[in-house]
Amino acid sequence: MGLIEDELSEVRKLCEHTIQGCKLVSCVQSMIRAEIQRTNFKKIVICIQYPKDYPNYPLLIELKSKTFSEKLLAGLTTVVEQEAKKYLGKPQVLKVLQFVKAFIDEHPLACCYDEINNLKKNLNGSQDELKLKQKTSCLYLKVFNECYYLTSKVVIPDQYPDVVIKFEDIQSNFSSTFNRHIIAQVKEIVRRCVEPPLRKPKPNEPLFKPKPSLEKAVFFLIDCIKRLPKENCQFCKTKCFPDDPSLVVLDENSPDHIERVYCGHLYHQSCLFQYLKTPPFGNKRCQTCGQKICHPKWSLSDKLAEDRWAHEQARERELAEVEEFFK
Ligand SMILES: [Zn+2]
Ligand SMILES: [Zn+2]
Where would I find the RWD domain in this sequence (predicted)? Predict the structure, then answer.
């Protein structure tokens, strides 16, 4: 039994000093429990038990995490067990802890495992791809719909999801104005996941916590390509985009320029103007889905739009309070 005692005392002595972010919770013969944390979101708990006939048999290992996906942990457990088998006949605990630490450090995209796999389910074209580059913590998206395409690089920060993900070099063969709107909207989706709303929180509302934004934001981009090229103008009911992308109307002042309103539906510019100019005025809603028509071209400035939004929220809150009073 001397070997195990020696190993335990070595683990107690070295583990927290040599493995950055490692906290030893318990270190006795019946159970070793260590937490390895890189960020709030990247944290794995490792529970280790000694098998009979240790060290000729590999350690019994269980991995737990509140943030990493179950599937990823199951896969990682198998890999860690393989690693322990490399050291049969020798102490294995520190090797295992170091291995898990290195995995967290070298796989920055592992914390988005489920999000990435859910996104891949939406990529059904033969040319579509979502490539992972763990070294630089980047994803490369390519999505096609016949002749239409969109490509983008997505950078996942180490402090995900507390810090916004970045979209670099979003390119498509829609018009450049349309592309700019796509970029503005994807940034807004990400911002809302990370920053608290501008309005005052409602009483008893839980404190705002940043949410993962990758799946939501990239899904938005995929949807733009998979859905919009076939979609009709919601006013005149004719197909908006030509089959040949080289015929897309590029002049943003042309009546035929395609506008994507806030809900995601499409209108010809002239159709949208005509609709907005017909009564009943005020509070115009999308003809198809009933959401408010909201489009960058008709908002005075982002700041004002946000102020308005906050104001509206405040008004809704007031109304809710009044309603409650008269119940
Ligand atoms: Zn139209
Ligand atoms: Zn709509």
Answer: 6-107
Look at residue 170 in the predicted model and tell me its pLDDT.
Answer: 95
Average pLDDT of 119-141?
A: 95
Q: Who surrounds ion ligand 1 at CB < 5 A? A: 233, 235-236, 268, 271
Q: Which ligand is nearest to the CA of 268?
A: 1
Q: Report the half-sphere exposure of 127 (CA within 13 A, side-chain side).
A: 12
Residue 173 has pLDDT above 80, yes or no: yes
Q: What is the pLDDT of residue 220?
A: 95
Which residues fall inside 5 Å of ion ligand 2, going by CB? Answer: 263, 265, 286, 288-289
* Ligand 1 centroid to residue 275 C-alpha, Å: 10
Mean pLDDT lowest for which of 104-108, 118-122, 193-197? Answer: 193-197
- The helix (run of H) or strand (run of E) holding residue 215 is helix 214-227
**Could you give the residue range(s) of every CATH 3.10.110.10 domain in the chain?**
2-106
ipTM exceeding 0.90, yes/no: yes
Helices of type H across the chain: 2-18, 70-85, 93-106, 113-120, 176-194, 214-227, 269-277, 302-326
Residue 239 alpha carbon to ligand 1 centre in Å: 8
CATH superfamily, domain at 2-106: Ubiquitin Conjugating Enzyme (3.10.110.10)
